[in-house]
Structures are given as structure tokens and as C-alpha cells.
Amino acid sequence: MSVNFDFTKLTSIIYPPLCLTCKCKISSKEQGICLECDHKLPRTNFQNSKENKFSERFWGRIPVHTASAMYYFNGNESVKKMIHGLKYQGKTDIGERIGRIFGKRLRKNSNFDGVDMILPVPLHWTRQRERGYNQSDCFAKGLSESMGRNWHRDYLKRNKNTTSQTKKSISERIENVSNIFEVVDPKLLQGKHILLVDDVVTTGATLEACAEAILKIPGTTVSMATIAIAV
Ligand SMILES: [Zn+2]
Q1: Could you tell me whether strands 150-151 and 117-120 are parallel, antiparallel, or unpaired per DSSP bridges?
Q2: What global pTM score does this model have?
Q3: Do residues 58 and 17 touch, judged by C-beta distance below 8 A?
Q4: Within a domain: residue 119?
Q5: 48: CA distance to ligand 1 center in Å?
Q6: Cα–ligand 1 centroid distance for 52 (angstroms)
């Protein structure tokens, strides 16, 4: 005799899901953020237009098919809190949950129709060992679940552990990241539309360097998605 027991249900009774930002109890329908907080978060809705403040960062630099960020990063404490928790406090579920919410929106959008696979921007192995995980992997995993596209953490490799970008000028940042990424097996990406994902986009130098490595492979198209954009 077999007994079917729903552990997910039991877990949600013992640990009810909490809002990512205000920590109130939420229903599973609310997808990680309570309705009240969700209305307050600064969404970009960039996915609705191919020409937006994200994609225009790459004009004259590299061809980007479509680019969107879920939220504006600047001046919003809740968004900052979520990113900080994801990057520095081991709250990997934040990345996955935002990925699932964002993926649902991108799936409905024709600009993202042709995406074949999702690739997170890799960390250098020393940084990843320090942190224990790559925050972009979490976001990629969530996106993958709701977009119905595979994600791969080992298709791209970071060969150089770059120093922090925050105190550098734009030209120093571009110099800092050029030629640091490598595609492990170019055959796997040939002719594919890649959705490249990262946590936050600032100047776009890291995403640009990563996209450059991909775009050397014949027939590739690159789109981009991040949790937040600093403007
Ligand atoms: Zn809330």
C-alpha cells in the first residue's frame, strides 16, 4: 500500500511563505511578494519595447536583440534589500522567485519568443567558492522554470577575477572586463538565441564582454535580462 503525502503542503504550514520585502505572510498565488509591496516596486516594463534604456546602452557597441530588467535599482529600498539579500546573505530563493515572476511576463512577450536557452553570467571560480553560489544562477533557474527554456551554468567560463566595478570610471570598467569570458563549447551555441542574465546592470560592461564572447560564434543572437537596472 502506498501513501501519498504532500510534503510541500506540510512545509508551507510549518514555514508559511513570506513576502520578500515586508515579511508578511502571503498566499502561494502571490509569488513571493505581497500585493501591496508589488504595487510599490518600480517595474521597468522594458520588455514591451525593443528600444529602451537598457538596450540603448549597447548601441554602437554590440547587437542586442532585446533587453529588459525587472526593476529600477535606484532609490528603492525594497529592491536594494532584495539584491543585497541575494548577493551577500545567501538568500538564493529571492533570485529564483523573482526569476519565476519575471519569466512569466517575458513568456507573454513576443520580443522574447525566440529564446533557445538561458545562460547566467558566470563568477570566477574563486569568487563562487567564497560565496558558495552564483546569484545569477538563481535568477536563471527561476526564469527557466516559468519560461520553459533550459538554463546552463557551465556553458560560459570566467577566466579572470575582476576587481570591484563600483569605484571605476566607465572606460576603466570596460577595460577591466574585456576578454575575460570564454564559451566552453562553441558548437553548443551555434545558431542559438541566448538569453544572458545577471543580477544588476550598471554600465553594461560585464554583459557586453560576455555577449562579445557569445557573438563570435556564427548564427548567435543575444538578449539580456537582469533583476534590476541602475539608471
Ligand atoms: Zn510585502
Answers
A1: parallel
A2: 0.86
A3: no
A4: yes
A5: 26
A6: 28
Q: Are residues 123 and 77 in the same domain?
A: yes
Rounded distance, CA 191 to CA 129, Å? Answer: 32
Q: Does 31 share its domain with 116?
A: no
1 part of a folded domain: no
Read off the CATH number of the domain in which 174 is found: 3.40.50.2020
Residues 159, 180 contacting (CB under 8 angstroms)? yes
41: nearest Cα among 66, 22, 18: 22
Rounded distance between C-alpha atoms, residue 209 and residue 204, angstroms: 9
pLDDT block averages, 10 residues each, the chain of length 231: 55 71 80 80 92 95 96 89 90 90 92 95 94 96 97 94 68 71 97 98 94 97 97 87
In a domain, 143, yes or no: yes
| Residues 68, 74 contacting (CB under 8 angstroms) | no
List, as ranges, residues with CB under 5 A of the ion ligand 1. Answer: 19, 22, 34, 37
29 and 136 within one domain: no
Q: Which residue range is the domain that position 36 belongs to?
A: 13-41
Measured in Å, residue 225 CA sits from the centre of ligand 1 at 24
Nearest of 189, 174, 166, 107 to residue 142 by alpha carbon: 107
How many whole angstroms from 25 Cα to the centroid of ligand 1?
8
